[in-house]
Amino acid sequence: MTDDVTDAVAAEVAAAVADAHRHEWAFVLAATVRVTRDLDVAEECVQDAYAKALTTWADGGIPRRPGAWLTTTARNRALDAMRRDATLRRSLPLLLLDEESAMGATTWDDFVDDRLRLIFMCCHPALAEEARIALTLRLLCGLTTAEVARAFLVSEPTMAARITRAKKKIAAAGIPYQVPRAEELPARVEAVLTVVQLLFTTGHTAPAGDDLVRRDLVERALDLARMLRTLLPADPSVAGLLALILLTDARRDTRAAPDGRLLLLAEQDRTRWDRAAITEGIDLIREALARRHRPPGRYALMAAIAAVHAEAPSWDDTDWREVVALYDLLVRLWPSPVVALNRAVALGFAAGPADGLAALDALAAEPQLAGYGYLSAARADFLRRLGRTAEARTAYEEALLLTENSVERDFLAGRLRQLAG
Amino acid sequence: MSQYLILIYGDEASWDRTSPEFVEQLHKEHAAFLQANAGAVRAGEALHRTGTATSIRKDGGGVTVTDGPFAETKEALGGFYLVEAADLDEAIAVAQQVPAPFGGVEVRPIRAVDFD
Q1: Which range scores top for mean pLDDT: A147-156, A259-268, A302-311?
Q2: Which of A236, A241, A282, A399 is the most exposed, having the fewest neighbouring CB atoms within 10 Å of its CB?
Q3: Contact A46, A29 (CB under 8 A)
């Protein structure tokens, strides 16, 4: 074999392992946790299986079902480890799972899909929100602790301590490795979706740093939403969240100019929006807003608002009355100052900046909006359009103080310069 | 099965404003809770106010006895139930039913300690 051929094989294997890492990690880990009933041991075995794949697949070829190969390999390692450390294992608190055991699984089809159990465990409301997010990235997406730490701009030891603490709580408090009972399911699905949405929004507009978008986090959120859609196909809120992510992310290539400058919805090149994602999103909204799912879910309504923009051929053709009507519904069903702020902004476009400003000023006393940069930025924009330049300048300066994303900061500074000129 | 302690916290000042009818109703609610969860509850007691608490600390060779609870908080421990549950979800399902009109409850897993 020539070196070229060897290199080509190695590259092909590396790509296959990377692909399996992205798409099969949660399945392989969930199936292995069932054997070990211990998260750390399971993670080690799964990591070993992926490492082994790199060499074994290079020698013997890529298996027809990489996920099955990885699952079998990881579970065999786990069984070995369990036998070896039988005494040690007895002293650790084991994860609680009902005895619907598939220990004897030998073929791919015999493996029980335990991903839902893993998801509900990672996103259990008894865990702190930041711990849920960290566990989700680590256990469901297979990110390393270092990667999770980078995603949330904390040091690796801090993140490692957070993950260890969460795992300890799961074992000690007895957070079960189970799908919740039917009566608890809607609330628990909601807790899972909150984690996915937080990941997405963190990625969509990074709270700090030099890039507007953290593409890695957006991709993970999309992967997770798609996974949930596969696992809970009848759930309208899952369909709603997937639609929201698809429709928002459809604008990804147009949100910043080539020089990195932030482009507003009004300035974006709509011909470059991802039409396939928009179509998929709109189909999902139709399903989520079907009559049998009344009242409509939060994410489906937010997705419907994104769809109004996605379907408008230009900024000037935007159906702002429809946007305001959707926000009215959203505010009524899920009252939140941030939603009310967005409604006020939409009203400013539907009825004019004076009405928008009045609606914004009605929210000025909301404690949740104190220190919220978007409120100042929205006020600044309405004041600018009303020709109240001095007040607009103050508001832009306020907004500048409140954002740490450098792309957003550049945008606000640019507006300030325009006012001066 | 695991054991969990459900700690009932509440604002003690609120008790001063309750009527005898309210207290009677609350007792009925606890009785109903006990009846509904007879299979899970292993023990349960109500506590006197924190004004009756005595703290004891050992430092150096001596023992200091002082009036009052360990930590002054707005919401004080007022009672508890010891329950048995398969997992945290089951414990939460029981804890949700505990009457706690002036605060809430906290669920803590019991740690099995081998004293041998």
Answers
A1: A302-311
A2: A282
A3: yes
Question: Taken in order B67, B70, B75, B80, is the CA torsion positive or negative?
Answer: negative
Q: Report how far residue A312's alpha carbon sits from residue A319's, in angstroms, rounded to the nearest whole number.
A: 7
Distance from CA of A96 to the nearest CA of B (A): 7
| H-helix or E-strand spanning residue B8 | strand B2-11
Q: Comparing C-alpha atoms, which of B88, B96, B6 is closest to residue A178?
A: B88
Cα–Cα distance, A156 to A129 (Å, whole number): 18
- For residue A89, pLDDT over 80 is answered with no
Task: Tell me the per-residue pLDDT of A360-402, one tens digit each, with 9 for 90 and over.
Answer: 999 988 888 888 888 999 999 999 999 999 999 999 999 999 8
d(CA A213, CA A190): 25
Asked whether the beta carbons of residue B89 and residue A172 sit closer than 8 angstroms, the reply is: no
Q: Three-state secondary structure along A174-205?
A: CCCCCCCCCCCHHHHHHHHHHHHHHHHHHHHC
Cα separation, B73 vs B93, whole angstroms: 27
Under a CB-based contact definition with an 8 Å cutoff, are residues A395 and A379 in contact?
Answer: yes
| Class in CATH terms, B2-109 | alpha beta
CATH node for A1-92: 1.10.1740.10
The domain spans of chain B are 2-109
Name which of A175, A177, A185, A188 to mutate to probe chain B: the one with the most chain B Cβ atoms within 10 A of its Cβ: A175
pLDDT digits (tens, 9 = 90+) for B58-88: 988 899 899 989 888 889 999 999 999 999 9
Q: Choose the closest CB to A172 out of B85, B89, B109.
A: B109
Reference A282, options A244, A233, A323, A320; nearest CA is A244
Which residues pair with residue B65 across a beta bridge? B56
Q: pLDDT per residue over A290-333, tens digit each?
A: 988 888 999 999 999 999 999 999 999 999 999 999 999 999 99
pTM above 0.80, yes or no: yes
Tokens 């190695």 belong to which residue? A10
Using the Cβ of B91 and the Cβ atoms of chain A, whether some distance falls under 8 Å is answered with yes
Which whole-number Å values give the CA distances from A126 to A10, A37, A238, A385, in the listed order? 44, 19, 21, 47
Report how far residue A85's alpha carbon sits from residue A89's, in angstroms, rounded to the nearest whole number.
Answer: 6
